Amino acid sequence: MGKIDIVVIGSGHNGLVAAAYLAAAGRRVLVLERNGWFGGGVVTRELTLPGFLHDQHSIAHIFIHANPLLAADELKLKAKYGLRYVFPDPPMMSVFEDGSTLGMYRDRERTCADIAKFSRKDADAYRRLANQAAAWLPMVASTLYTAPAPLGASFALLDQSREGREFWRIVQMSTHDVLCEYFEHDKVRMHFARIAGENLISPDEKSTGLGVFVFVGFMEAYGIGVPIGGSGRLTDALIACIKDFGGDVLANVDVAHVLTKNGRATGVATTKGQEYEARDAVIGAIHPHHLGRMVGGLDAEVVRAAEATQISPVACITILAALKAPLRFKAGAHVSGAMIELLPNNYEQLRRSFDDLRYGGLSRYPLVGLGSLTMFDPSRAPKGCAELHAWDYVPYERPDGRSWDESKRDYAERMLAHMGGFIENVGPVDILQYHCDSPADMERTSSSFQRGDLHGIATTSYQSGAHRPTPELGQFTVPGVERLYLVGPFQHPGGGVFGAGRATAVKLAEDLKIDLSKIAR
Ligand SMILES: Cc1cc2nc3c(=O)[nH]c(=O)nc-3n(C[C@H](O)[C@H](O)[C@H](O)COP(=O)(O)OP(=O)(O)OC[C@H]3O[C@@H](n4cnc5c(N)ncnc54)[C@H](O)[C@@H]3O)c2cc1C
Prior knowledge:
This protein is α/β, with parallel strands linked by helices and 521 residues long. It contains 16 helices and 20 strands. The chain has helices at residues 13-24, 68-71, 108-116, 120-142, 151-158, 162-172, 175-182, 186-197, 210-221, 232-244, 291-294, 300-307, 347-358, 404-419, 439-445, 501-512, and strands at 6-9, 29-32, 44-45, 54-55, 85-86, 92-96, 101-104, 226-227, 248-250, 255-261, 264-270, 275-277, 281-284, 315-323, 339-343, 369-371, 386-394, 431-437, 477-478, 481-486. Strand 6 and strand 7 form a beta hairpin. It starts with 5 loop residues before the first strand and ends in a 9-residue tail after the last helix. Bound molecules: flavin-adenine dinucleotide (FAD).
């Protein structure tokens, strides 16, 4: 490869998305990845037995479907580079300990019928909530794939109208406050509270109330996309696109720091001492806690604020299992969904489990969610078999002082025993082999997932929008260093498969006068 225009640190999907846009716009890009594989949190690997394709991290592609990247197939990932999705319906289901279930369907009336099993009043309330969610969705979606607007100006705008003030009120409430306002039945509240908990946040955390509306709006409008062949097929499609436009992606290259000259990023140096020059710019998946180490000469206050960003006390642990046969739920054969949440009968137990984590303890009730995507994509396992991806939330440091490396199998067995209360065939005779990633493993697979926080840093109001990760780093740029741009779950709009690298590419293109409109559509 000749001279490089743009070097990208990290082959997470966000770095790849940014690289692919800029490659398609005619720039020569090079992506450098520390791991021996590509994709960061969007990766599919044979981690147990041959023929079992496991999504090591993300399984559910939700928010990327409203991104023009896929909504308009701007880079032809679907039309040309083989990316295909199925959209299960229901996308999501809660299964309670007593065998009752509550599905969240694409069709509002089907969801209402399920809610009415618990409370007719709540079914009506859901209609109101879903109506409001649908009305707000275009506005919310329009903020997700570009650089965030200044927070002060946004709130001033909201303050101009009754609807804006209502939106702002919801933004400031906790998920629990919102759920109590709308619903009366404990299980209905719990169903939505658990969904909100997927943001690694307690339903009692203030300023999380909008999440319910965003989730409901997205579920109805887009559902959950399950990529055929695995989550990593998105990564594969992006790499194929980059290579098609003359770019390259290299594995096993660990970037130690960004090279700068006269206040401008000029390339990167690897831990092995190799240097890659970038004529135009560097894009980096640089966690805010590592910014000072990766980029020399920064203003001390920029580094201090970045290092002060807070990580969620809710870390993730996963089991990826090769199963002899598809899951058989005790609640019945109707249990289905890309995401299935296993819940107690009592909402207070769920709330107190999040409190346990807040205090650094193990949750009293395992917060297990799972996906067995062979239900919708049999290509992920040998004929007749199935794969399972289950997750739970734990503290990064165990309260008993044991290391996760030494204790993760014990914890995985606790999760499986708990799942056995809901599922007939997750015992030792049913599982051919399983792989467990503790919070310590998460951190090793990507530096984004510090302390097992799969969103990089906590998704709290003071670390959101234009203030994510900090007010000075919120526009994907780094004060004091020109031509250095940021991607990652710790940037706006946050953790998840958003394709947020598009916003970084747009910002870079504006600064460097690169015409992205020339990208063939
Ligand atoms: C267990 C788990 C389950 C999840 N489930 C879902 C889900 O179902 N749905 C969803 O939407 N989201 C999910 N997420 C979150 C989602 O996976 C991430 O938010 C998303 O993948 C982040 O993408 P990214 O490109 O910004 O960063 P990453 O995917 O973290 O990629 C960063 C890449 O950069 C590389 N890198 C970093 N520093 C360097 C360096 N110095 N040199 C070279 N390479 C470097 C890393 O190795 C990594 O490959 C999950 C995350 C986890 C951990």
